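Write out this protein's structure.
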Amino acid sequence: MNKEKRRQLTEWILTYLPEKNDLQGTLELQGLAGDAGFRRYYRLNTIPSMIAVDSPPSKENNLAYVQISLALNARGIRRPHLYAVDFSRGFLLLEDLGEQLMQPLLNDETVDKLYGQAELMLLSIQNSAPDTQIFPIYEKASLAQEFDLFAAWFVKKLLGISIDKHAKNMLDTLCTDLITSALSQPQVIVHRDYHSRNLMVVDDKKLAVIDFQDAVIGPVTYDLVSLLKDCYVTWPRELVESRVLSYRKRLEDSQLMAGVDEQTFLRWFDLMGLHRHIKVMGIFARLALRDGKTGYLHDLPLVIAYVLDVVARYPEAAVFGQWFETKITPHLRSHSWYSDNHQFSSADLTNRDKF
C-alpha cells in the first residue's frame, strides 16, 4: 500500500472506529497474511482489536461481500461483524475473530468434533433462503469457464503443453458430463471455498466462516467437497465416504433432499470434486504465474492426487485419466514442487501448514 492510500485508510478508520474499541496510543496498522484475492488485511491496535481491509473496488466485489455477510448473519451464521464500509475506496472495518484457523487443530482426536461443527454450520447455510438478488446462480457457463482454467493456465502456461484437437474434444466431453452431474443436484447456497483455512475457531470454541464473498446458488455437494476433499488437508478415503453418507442423511432429515440413494449421492460428490479440483489446478497455476503467489504450486500435488483418485473410480472419466497419465504426468516429474506420494487409504491424516 502506498503512503497516500495508507493515509486515506488511516483517516477513514479513525472516523468510523466504534467507541467501544479503545485505541491504544497512535493508530497502527499491522499487515496480515492475505487470501488468494487482492484484499489486504490490517490488525488495529485497539481493545478489542479490529481488522481493516483494503479491498480494491476495481478488483473485488465489495457489495457482494456486504450483502452476503448480512444474509449469513440473519441466518445466525457466525462471521466477522461489519462495522463500516466505503464502497468508493474499498475500505472495510471488521470484527477481529483472531488467528485460530481450523486447519492446524485437525487431528485424529478432534476430527469428529470439528468436522461435525463445520457440517452443522454448512447445513445452516444451505438452509438459508436462496435469494437470487444476493446470490448469483452457478450457471452452466460459469462452471464451463472455471473448467477451462485447467487447460489455459495449468496445461498450457504452467507446463507448456499444447492441447490437440483430440484432447480438446475429450476435455469438452468431460466438462459437459461433470456439469450435467452438478446441475442435476439440489441447488442451495454455496460458499464456494468452504475449507479448513476459511473456518475459524473463535473464543466460544464455535466456528465462524470467512471469505464468503463469492457465494452462489449451486450444487448441494460443492461445499461438502471443499470441506472433505480440502486442498490443504488429506483425509483417508474411508473417513471421507463415511462423512459424505452421514451428511446425505442430514440433508434428508432437513428436507433439503429426498429420494437420492447413497451411490448416487457419492457419485455426485466425487464428480463435483473432480470438477472443482480440475478448476483448482488452473487457479493455483494462475496464482503462481500471474500473481506471483508461488506457494500454491506446493499445494498442487494433493489436488492432482484427488483428481487421479476419482478418474480411477468412474468410467466416464477414464479417458481423461489415461490422457493425464500419458501426456501430463511425465512433465510434472520435472518440477521441484511435484511429488506423487499422496495416498488416501491409510488411517493417518496429513495436515500441512499454510505457505
